[in-house]
From TrEMBL, chains A, B:
PANTHER family according to UniProt: TRNA WYBUTOSINE-SYNTHESIZING PROTEIN 3
Described function: Probable S-adenosyl-L-methionine-dependent methyltransferase that acts as a component of the wybutosine biosynthesis pathway. Wybutosine is a hyper modified guanosine with a tricyclic base found at the 3'-position adjacent to the anticodon of eukaryotic phenylalanine tRNA.
Family: Belongs to the TYW3 family.
InterPro entries associated with the record: tRNA_yW-synthesising, tRNA_yW-synthesising-like_sf
EC id: 2.1.1.282
Involved pathway(s): tRNA modification; wybutosine-tRNA(Phe) biosynthesis
Protein name: tRNA wybutosine-synthesizing protein 3 homolog
Length: 259, 259
């Protein structure tokens, strides 16, 4: 079976299976994006979380919370206030941690080239920790991730280590991050639609394909700040995928533009 | 010029340039790893940070700290205590945030296959947010990242929002994370050395190359917990690169093993 037929077969099987997540359905804020991707022959999503605020009760001995072993005191995909969190937090017996986790989306891609296009759109939309995985038999997956989290220890051995005023302050920040995450998802959706339209046009003129690839979907401006890009789909130079530009604290070497 | 010669040329240029980081040198905890990679013809590192505790003073209006615009009150690659942090924290006039950032390493790879091997080793060593970027002209970069961070808002408009006791508690956690990060770097170094040795043996017998690729470096056991792997270089099935296994809260579809 050729790769393309194999991909179609796996896509069909994958999408026909039951949703095995705890929630059992795709998060509301990411439904449209998931549908857009699954509606294209070159992609299908294998896991998604739109973004959430989590309150976890970790073991007191292990400093790193293993999500599968710890108690989930609260999970919400919507903004929340102190009165949502405090009752849950009072149930903690170990080391409770509040986390904001932005969008995580795993997309299987037919070809490396399909993953490259999607990766480029993800980076441009602010999901800078995205990356491709290529399996031993060529299975190509893009993980879409943001840098945009929050992880705050709140209690130790069941004892609250912060004030309620701090919880209030913290939730305002978490809610703002959730709002920003939602904007990035919308930006991603818009930019992806734009890129896929270009792809479709390109594929209608196969002779021009390579030329168009270099001059349209892949044309980038050296502009890294996703905040400045908004919904304009300004594509960026993401070849380096480095924290370089932001961060003079990292030991770096700069590449010339033309590599 | 063929790809291989082009890669060599860029590697030479890149490594001969001055270190443009704020610190101006490679972090001590990652020097050996960087040397190991740069000593191999198929890799070179373009940026690195071994892991650090950061205290940033962000603007009070923007909730997301832009590292290049904000004030760095403290940066350390070593464990620290309350008395290191408090004097720096008192200088905050905006919204100060304490972060622990684990290893970040960007490695340019000659071929996709070289990136796949390194990616596999990174995942197996606990750097689960690692991912490949393939540029428009085929430039292949692996970003090695961990899930293993901390981001804690501490003050608002210069006012400290937590107690000194909490700072003490928080730094214990940050220091533990730094210690665990160091272990992962060591594990990564050992596993990489092991994988590269196998590669060398494989390349000495070119006829067996493909067979060996499938049966040695790429042989994996379905074992995801990096804590359990220690330095044993148990390789894992990382094709999926999903948070699936850990996290029943994410909407997922599971792949069969043989894809």
């Amino acid at each position: 079976m050729d790769r393309s037929a194999e991909f179609r077969r796996w896509k069909a099987q994958c999408l026909s299976r039951a949703d095995l997540s705890r929630k059992g359905s795709v998060d509301e804020d990411v439904v449209e994006l998931v549908q857009l991707l699954n509606g294209r022959e070159q992609y299908f999503t294998t896991s998604s979380c739109a973004g959430r605020i989590l309150l976890l009760d970790g073991g007191i001995n292990g400093f790193e919370v293993q999500k599968q072993n710890c108690c989930w005191l609260l999970v919400t995909h919507k903004p929340c206030v102190k009165d949502d969190v405090m009752p849950a937090l009072r149930k903690a017996t170990g080391d409770a941690i509040l986390k904001f986790e932005p969008l995580i989306l795993h997309v299987q891609c037919r070809e490396l080239q399909d993953a490259q296009i999607l990766h480029s759109v993800a980076i441009d939309s602010g999901f800078r920790n995205s990356g491709i995985t290529v399996g031993k038999r060529g299975k190509t997956m893009l993980a879409i991730r943001s840098t945009h989290g929050l992880e705050v220890p709140l209690s130790h051995k069941g004892k609250l280590m912060v004030t309620e005023e701090y919880i209030d302050f913290l939730l305002q920040i978490a809610n703002q991050k959730m709002e920003e995450n939602k904007k990035r998802i919308e930006r991603f959706y818009n930019c992806l639609q734009h890129a896929l339209e270009k792809e479709t046009v390109t594929n209608s003129y196969p002779k021009k394909k390579i030329k168009d690839k270099n001059n349209s979907s892949y044309t980038r401006k050296k502009k890294r700040n996703p905040e400045a890009a908004h919904d304009k789909c300004i594509t960026e130079e993401n070849d380096e995928d480095c924290e370089n530009d932001d961060d003079p604290g990292i030991s770096i070497t700069i590449f010339p533009e033309d590599y």
